[in-house]
Amino acid sequence: MQEMHLQENGSIHSRLMKNRCPKCEQKLKIKKKTADKLERLCENCRLTIIDKLPGAEYPYDVCD
Fold this sequence. Notes:
Elements: H1 11-17, E1 29-33, E2 37-41, E3 48-52
Antiparallel strand pairs: 1-2, 2-3
């Protein structure tokens, strides 16, 4: 597993809420959304983010 060090507390949450990669800040692509999980991919750095639903950190309009 890759470790990430960010300068500010809350940076990961803030980027995910903007649908941006926590690592490189590029826009995330939705790979899959089911009733219980949301899977996003950064095509730039290949980071995959899997969040449990409900409660995932993403903008409300990202899955419309």
